[in-house]
């Protein structure tokens, strides 16, 4: 495996998140940046300068369109940091070009759109992963081990940050035509994943938005809460996501036999060390997980490993990530549906 | 004030909680134990031995009935660690004997019972306080100061412990005839107070029990969650209380300008130091509050101080504690009503 060439990743667009991800790719021994596509908003010259200032390999190809990058035979996989409204089009196109896909959250504007991506990935045998980094922090696997043993009864997770006025007016995450799911598709995505992680990735039976969601004039969610109910198991979760409240990134998972608390689950306050707390039988323990690489590099390494299995060893793509993203998107949709439907519970069975 | 004699407290019954409170009274310079009343379950001899082994003052009078203690002119105030079903009778009697009252939570089986206590206290000019100790930990005042500045948007609080089989069969907190409010009146009491504390003691507009409450065969709540909604302010709180989940004592209060987290709000893990965390603008601070005395002694000192104001300086009783207990009881009742009414929201206006 170590003899394999690094997986060659093409990046669509020159946004800030690409800066972070390109650093992560540079830190990943099994991946490399091979191409960058400009959009109408940046020229070839700007893209070259972006590539240089972010330490892209000197031979990185600059494409003047997404199409051209997707046709490049020197690209194994693509990272798509584009607005959610464009995901279905470009992820499906990428899959049909045989490119493996790392896709930002929310993965689509709704699950039926995402199902088109799922189908394209499955038909073309490409590996999919959504770009949610916290799942790849080694801490997450560690606290999931505790959660498995704790017989979880209830989970509360929240992710909020206080966006400034400029963000609330202009960011793509508050625009109906772009990332139309607002805080729910952004910070809410993480809290929903946390609820799924704490419940062994099982979908709840019902989803009910909590009173008090805040929407902007375009109907985009700026802040909301929701309740997930697993019914016969007596397990519940509450989530809270917001662009209007102070930075908070909490998971509290309480079980019959123990409690797990994480206070910075989305992005650890320190890049080289991530902590969480467990308590069992009145005994409190703080666990520190050392992380040699930032979590976004851990994600790239795992993505490239899976792509390598497909490319070099003819393995089938690992379907876990498609399934996890689909469940998350389904819950995003259900919370939105409950908000739109006067906070009525949404029953998930059969979805 | 320092020249005043200590407030003389009479204790009704010899339960375990009396052990803890008698230690607290012994630690309080402005209070002393002057009398102990036995119940039918313990003899005078047993009461004497209880008093001795818990370092009661040697001249503590032993009464063979509650009535007799309430008539004792050497008793200024009483502590009533008796089942909630007996609160209305004995608190009202105590008030009519002019005794100031420290009453365990839940203060009654419902708010209409509690209103009889309120009336008796007001008519007789006696000081009332419920025996919820965490409110008196100096930490609580400290984090309330932060909460005031943070423009709170949402609060989550939980208090659970995993009761053993014996407790779940025999404890008065799971018996319909005794403390009939179960986990809701016990651990839930604290979580409700936390929600009120975080919202400047304002009652929410609606209360909705969350799905999945667990009740025993007698209909007593063993575990439940609830949502409080302040409506026009867009503020919500969720609570979770349980006898069936691992010991957890969390408050997370998230505001536009900051977040307060407390991980052991009910009983700090350490008696001499209590911590909480704030975050504002991405900056995390841990605050440690040194506590010379355990929080139950802080409570006794404050109670005795208020009683002293009435007794020695002719002050009017401080009505804050009656009002806070009443609000808490009202919310306990509302959660129970919502549970009994198929999780329908309960509108509090006018109550």
UniProtKB/TrEMBL annotation, chains A, B:
Stretches assigned to the GFO/IDH/MocA-like oxidoreductase domain: 151-260
Record-annotated Gfo/Idh/MocA-like oxidoreductase N-terminal domain positions: 9-129
Superkingdom of source: Eukaryota
Family listed: Belongs to the Gfo/Idh/MocA family.
PANTHER family documented for this protein: GENOME ASSEMBLY, CHROMOSOME: A09, PTHR46368
The protein, known as: Uncharacterized oxidoreductase At4g09670-like isoform X1
Species of the source: Camelina sativa
């Amino acid at each position: 495996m170590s003899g394999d060439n690094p997986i060659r990743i093409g990046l669509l667009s020159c946004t800030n998140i690409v800066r972070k991800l390109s650093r992560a790719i540079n830190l990943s021994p099994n991946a490399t940046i091979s191409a960058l596509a400009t959009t109408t908003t940046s020229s070839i010259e700007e893209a070259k300068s972006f590539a240089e200032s972010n330490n892209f390999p000197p031979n990185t190809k600059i494409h003047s369109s997404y199409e051209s990058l997707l046709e490049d035979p020197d690209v194994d996989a693509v990272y798509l940091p584009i607005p959610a409204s464009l995901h279905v089009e470009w992820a499906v196109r990428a899959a049909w070009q045989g490119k493996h896909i790392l896709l930002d959250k929310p993965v689509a504007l709704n699950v039926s759109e995402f199902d088109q991506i799922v189908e394209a990935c499955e038909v073309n045998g490409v590996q999919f992963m959504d770009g949610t980094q916290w799942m790849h922090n080694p801490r997450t696997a560690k606290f999931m081990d505790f959660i498995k043993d704790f017989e979880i009864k209830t989970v509360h997770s929240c992710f909020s940050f206080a966006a400034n006025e400029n963000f609330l007016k202009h960011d793509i995450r508050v625009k109906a035509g772009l990332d139309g799911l607002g805080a729910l598709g952004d910070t809410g995505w993480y809290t929903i994943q946390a609820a799924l992680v704490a419940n062994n990735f099982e979908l709840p039976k019902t989803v009910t938005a909590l009173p008090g969601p805040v929407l902007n004039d375009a109907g985009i969610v700026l802040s909301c809460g929701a309740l997930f109910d697993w019914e016969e198991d007596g397990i519940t979760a509450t989530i809270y996501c917001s662009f209007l409240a102070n930075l908070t990134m909490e998971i509290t998972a309480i079980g019959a036999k123990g409690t797990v608390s994480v206070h910075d689950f989305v992005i650890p306050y320190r890049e080289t060390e991530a902590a969480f707390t467990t308590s069992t039988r009145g005994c409190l323990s703080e666990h520190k997980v050392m992380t040699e690489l930032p979590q976004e590099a851990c994600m790239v390494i795992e993505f490239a490993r899976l792509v390598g299995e497909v490319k070099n060893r003819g393995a089938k793509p690992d379907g876990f990530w498609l399934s996890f993203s689909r469940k998350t998107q389904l819950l995003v949709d259900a919370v939105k549906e409950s908000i739109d439907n006067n906070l009525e519970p949404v029953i998930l069975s059969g979805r």
